[in-house]
Amino acid sequence: MFGQLSHKLEVNVPASEAWEIYGTLGLSKLLVEDGSAFEKIEILEGDGGSGTILKKTFMPGSHGFTVHKEKFTKLDNEKRVKELEVIEGGYLDLGFTLFRVRFEIIEKDNDSCIIKSTMEYDVKEEAVANISYPNTDLVAKIAEVAKDYLIKNKATENAA
After folding, report:
1. Active site includes 82?
2. Which Gene3D superfamilies does this chain map to (predicted)?
3. Which domain holds residue 33?
4. Using an 8 Å Cβ cutoff, are 143 and 7 in contact?
5. CA 132 to chain centre
6. Which CATH number fits the domain that encloses residue 25?
7. 72-122: per-residue pLDDT in tens?
8. Which is catalytic among the residues 56, 69, 71, 82?
C-alpha cells in the first residue's frame, strides 16, 4: 500500500539561505544541537552530496524505533531539492519496503520561501497495520528548527 504525506512551512528568508541549511549537512548539525528529535547523527559515508549515508539515533520514545540509516538519493542545487531514503532499520523494520523524504525549498519572493517536505512510503500488505506510523510531526519539527535558526541568523545579521 502506497502513501504520501506533505507539510509546508513559510519562512521569511530568501530561498538561497534556506537551501544553505537543507542542501548541506548543516541541517543534521542543527537537529542534534536542538536535541528534540535526534540524539545523534553520524556520517557513515559521503560529504553531504548524493550518495551520503547517515545513521540517525532518535531520542528515546520519539518513534516506534530508535535507529535508522538513510541515503541521500538526490541533491539538486539548482531546483533546491533533496531526497533521502531509509536503507536500514526504522520504517523498514516495521514492514515498509520504501520510505522516502523529499525536501524542497520553493522561492516565494526575494525575501521568503516555503519549505515543503514530502514523505512517500510503501508498506507490505501483511504490515498494513503500521500504516499509521508515518506522520508529518518529524518533518514539521525539522522545518521549525531550520526556520528558528534562519530567522535568528537574519536578526543577528541585521543587528550587526
Report:
1. yes
2. 3.30.530.20
3. 2-159
4. yes
5. 19
6. 3.30.530.20
7. 999 999 999 999 999 999 999 999 999 999 999 999 999 999 999 999 999
8. 82
